[in-house]
Amino acid sequence: MPMLGLFLLQVCLLPLSGLWISQLASAQTPQPKSPSAQNPSTPASSQPALEPKALAILKATSDRLAAAQTMTFTAVSTYESPSRIGPPLVYTTTSDVTLQRPDKLKVISPGDGPPSQFYYDGKTITAFAPNENLVAIKQAPPTIDAALQAAYEDGAVYFPFTDVLVANLYKDITDGLKSAFYVGQSKVIGGTTTDIIAIANDKVFAQVWIGTTDKLPRMIRAVYKDDPSRLRHQVAFSNWKLDVPIAANAFTSPHTTTAKKIEFKAPDPPPAPSTPSRPAFEPPRLTQ
């Protein structure tokens, strides 16, 4: 599997059959451009599996992000979870991200849910829970990609926007890709004109909005094939700044030095749904 890429896709969705992909794409496309989308009777198999235009847009985004030595942005993640009575509730988290290639990353998530802070300075990975004043630290590999992989494997630390942090977004997403097609344009998302593409592998179907001029990702929505409820996961991006100066001390925090140290490991599993003490409002359980 791709080392990191498609973290969002792997966590969220599933490989969709060609028919399922076609049906979902048709339902979510306000102004379909492809001949097959305009004619529902056209067999899904007649669609090109990987449209060059969609791949070119994805490649341009990957090149733009890979060329940036530093970047900052805000990611608002939205995801659904079934309520007690069935229909899904929507939860959101926001994260302020600072990256400096090749080996520095900071993710500050003030809410919703428990606040969390993540620091990678090229030598160590630090996960800090400011409300509880708890910190977990581990030795880190020398690249952002490897550090994200280690954080996920050792501590279940996962960011829904990991795909835009890795060194080669295009490779990570296209490895195992089964379908990619151009949907159209939007003038609504991110306050700018965006190109919309849809992509799918064997686990996930995702729709991606990318700035037509700046080539920056503005939103990703994903559904996982093995999820019978077809819950939707979304990440919206804003406040993009590339190649801006970053303070030398941006990737550490003085507060972590006095916090209580705990082991860097995955959190305990959540209680069973029938647990009587379960709160009426259950915050997101994603580890960030």
Topology readout:
Elements: H1 7-12, H2 18-28, H3 35-38, H4 52-67, E1 70-82, E2 88-100, E3 104-111, E4 116-120, E5 124-129, E6 134-139, H5 144-155, H6 169-174, E7 179-186, E8 194-200, E9 204-211, E10 217-224, E11 232-242, E12 260-262
Parallel strand pairs: 6-12
Antiparallel strand pairs: 1-2, 1-11, 2-3, 3-4, 4-5, 5-6, 7-8, 8-9, 9-10, 10-11
Shape estimate: globular
Beta-strand portion reads 25-35%
Strand order in space, largest sheet: 7-8-9-10-11-1-2-3-4-5-6-12
Query: What does the radius of gyration come to?
Result: 20 Å
Low-confidence stretches: 1-43, 275-288
Number of strands: 12
Helical proportion? 10-25%
Distance between the termini: 22 Å
Q: Give the structural class.
A: alpha+beta
Most strands sheet? 12 strands, mixed
Q: Give average pLDDT, whole number.
A: 82
N-to-C SSE string, H for helix and E for strand:
HHHHEEEEEEHHEEEEEE
Secondary structure tally, helices: 6
